C-alpha cells in the first residue's frame, strides 16, 4: 500500500470503527477506516454517516426509490431516512486497516522459554 497519495490530502480522514455493526463486511471493532469526503457515494459503498449527532458506518443500499444505510450485522438496525431526504453521508470508506485484536495490540505470552546457551536470546512459544 502506497500512502503517498493520502498524505496531506484535505479530503481524507482516519476514523476508528467502534462497535460491531459492520462485522459481516469484515470491518471489526478498532479497525481504522480511511474516509474520503470528496467521493460521491454510490450503491454498495461503505460510508460514514451522521446519525443522531454521531458517526456511524453502514453500507449504502438502493432500495427502490430510497437509499438505506444497511448494517452488515443482523443484530444492528438499518437506517431508513424519513421522507425523500437522502441519508446524511459524511464520507466514503476507501480503505480499512484491520486491527489484530479488537482494537488492542497483541500481548506476548506470560514468559519466554529459557535460552539453551548464554549466546541465544529467549524465544517465545505459543501455548494452547
TrEMBL record:
<keyword id="KW-0378">Hydrolase</keyword>
<keyword id="KW-0227">DNA damage</keyword>
<dbReference type="InterPro" id="IPR036286">
    <property type="entry name" value="LexA/Signal_pep-like_sf"/>
</dbReference>
<dbReference type="InterPro" id="IPR006197">
    <property type="entry name" value="Peptidase_S24_LexA"/>
</dbReference>
<dbReference type="InterPro" id="IPR015927">
    <property type="entry name" value="Peptidase_S24_S26A/B/C"/>
</dbReference>
<dbReference type="InterPro" id="IPR050077">
    <property type="entry name" value="LexA_repressor"/>
</dbReference>
<feature type="domain" description="Peptidase S24/S26A/S26B/S26C">
    <location>
        <begin position="4"/>
        <end position="80"/>
    </location>
</feature>
<feature type="region of interest" description="Disordered">
    <location>
        <begin position="101"/>
        <end position="128"/>
    </location>
</feature>
<dbReference type="GO" id="GO:0016787">
    <property type="term" value="F:hydrolase activity"/>
</dbReference>
<dbReference type="GO" id="GO:0009432">
    <property type="term" value="P:SOS response"/>
</dbReference>
<dbReference type="Pfam" id="PF00717">
    <property type="entry name" value="Peptidase_S24"/>
</dbReference>
<dbReference type="GO" id="GO:0003677">
    <property type="term" value="F:DNA binding"/>
</dbReference>
<dbReference type="GO" id="GO:0006281">
    <property type="term" value="P:DNA repair"/>
</dbReference>
<keyword id="KW-0742">SOS response</keyword>
<protein>
    <submittedName>
        <fullName>Peptidase S24</fullName>
    </submittedName>
</protein>
<keyword id="KW-0068">Autocatalytic cleavage</keyword>
<dbReference type="GO" id="GO:0006355">
    <property type="term" value="P:regulation of DNA-templated transcription"/>
</dbReference>
<dbReference type="InterPro" id="IPR039418">
    <property type="entry name" value="LexA-like"/>
</dbReference>
<keyword id="KW-0234">DNA repair</keyword>
<comment type="similarity">
    <text>Belongs to the peptidase S24 family.</text>
</comment>
<feature type="compositionally biased region" description="Low complexity">
    <location>
        <begin position="113"/>
        <end position="122"/>
    </location>
</feature>
Amino acid at each position: 500500500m502506497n500512502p503517498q497519495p493520502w498524505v496531506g490530502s484535505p479530503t481524507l480522514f482516519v476514523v476508528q470503527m467502534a462497535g460491531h455493526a459492520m462485522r459481516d463486511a469484515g470491518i471489526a471493532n478498532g479497525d481504522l477506516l480511511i474516509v474520503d469526503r470528496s467521493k460521491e457515494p454510490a450503491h454498495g459503498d461503505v460510508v460514514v454517516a451522521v446519525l443522531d449527532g454521531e458517526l456511524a458506518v453502514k453500507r449504502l443500499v438502493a432500495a427502490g426509490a430510497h437509499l438505506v444505510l444497511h448494517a452488515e450485522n443482523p443484530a444492528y438496525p438499518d437506517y431508513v431516512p424519513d421522507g425523500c431526504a437522502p441519508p446524511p453521508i459524511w464520507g466514503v470508506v476507501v480503505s480499512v486497516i484491520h486491527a489484530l485484536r479488537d482494537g488492542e495490540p497483541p500481548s506476548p505470552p506470560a514468559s519466554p522459554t529459557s535460552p539453551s546457551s548464554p549466546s541465544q536470546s529467549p524465544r517465545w512459544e505459543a501455548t494452547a
